[in-house]
Specification:
The chain is α+β, with helices and mostly antiparallel strands. Helix content is 38%, strand content 21%. A 4-stranded mixed beta sheet has the order 1-2-3-4, with helices on both faces. The radius of gyration is 13 Å and the shape is globular. 19% of the residues are buried.
Length: 105
């Protein structure tokens, strides 16, 4: 099966919504404002948790930009100080594992 970023994002969004999360997707091909470009593809809130996912695909040269790298570093730092914050770069092979971790928090 061929996975696209849109399909992975939709799968993650659907699972989170079914589990009571409010989900905001930024990676849906809409034109983003300057300050939004470095933000994660998926932001979700639920059960007192804040969840951030950057979605990438393995079969393309979809790499983190410098701004996305900066966002990643800031969110990883936030995770160190608050166990209810979760950030991950996900792809077609690992997104279900990361969702399981979110639900275990």
């Amino acid at each position: 099966m061929i996975y696209t970023k849109a399909k992975i994002t939709k799968s993650i969004r659907d699972i989170l919504v079914r589990n009571g999360y409010k989900v905001i997707s930024m990676g849906d091909n809409r034109k983003l404002r300057k300050g939004q470009r470095a933000f994660v593809d998926i932001f979700a809130m639920g059960g007192g948790k804040l969840v951030f996912f950057e979605v990438k695909t393995k079969d393309t040269n979809d790499k983190l930009s410098e701004d996305q790298q900066d966002t990643m570093e800031r969110l990883i730092l936030a995770m160190k100080y608050n166990r209810l914050v979760y950030y991950a770069v996900v792809d077609e092979d690992n997104y279900t594992d990361h969702l399981a971790r979110v639900f275990e928090l």
